[in-house]
Amino acid sequence: MMNDSFKAAGYFTGLMIGSYIERHYIRYEIPYGSPNLGILSCVGAAIMITWKEYLGPATVVLAFGKHWGSFVARFLLTIFATVVWPLVIRKECGTSPADTETEETAA
User: Fold this and answer.
1) pLDDT score of 82
2) What b-and-e string marks burial along 15-38, b requiring 16 or more CB atoms within 10 Å of the CB?
3) Beta strands in the chain (DSSP E)
4) From CA 51, how far away is CA 8, in angstroms rounded?
5) Closest to 65 (Cα-Cα) out of 77, 73, 53
6) Across the 107 residues of the chain, what is the mean pLDDT of every consecutive 10-residue run?
7) Residues 10, 81: contact at Cβ < 8 Å?
8) What is the pLDDT, as a whole number, of residue 30?
9) Domain that includes residue 23, residue range
């Protein structure tokens, strides 16, 4: 029960920090029509599942202990999903925040 609370707190903290960073600095928009988007989405999902099931418990949980390790592993997973992977998708698909701003002002 307590370990589940640490996991949930890790997800929540990662979501709060990640959404702030994404909203104020990254401003990710889905690049519709990009041929690489499907592959990048599948690769990102595979990385997240691998981290959650295998790499997180084998590295972070062993280093920090069961409770704090679960917190840190889930925090890093959520930061990856909200900050790191959108940056990778943006770089691979060739979009930038300036592109999304000009589309919004033109509409």
Assistant:
1) 95
2) beebeeebeeebebeebeeeeeee
3) none
4) 16
5) 73
6) 92 97 92 89 95 92 93 96 94 74 56
7) no
8) 86
9) 2-106
Residue type, 27: R
Interatomic CA distance for residues 35 and 40, integer angstroms: 10
Token pair 């930061």 in the structure block, residue:
79
**Which residue is associated with the tokens 């889930």?**
74
Question: What pLDDT sits at residue 94?
Answer: 81
- C-alpha to C-alpha distance for 25 and 35, rounded to whole angstroms: 25
Regarding pTM above 0.85, the answer is no
3-state DSSP assignment of residue 65:
coil
Overall size of the chain counted in residues: 107
Q: How many domains does the chain have?
A: 1
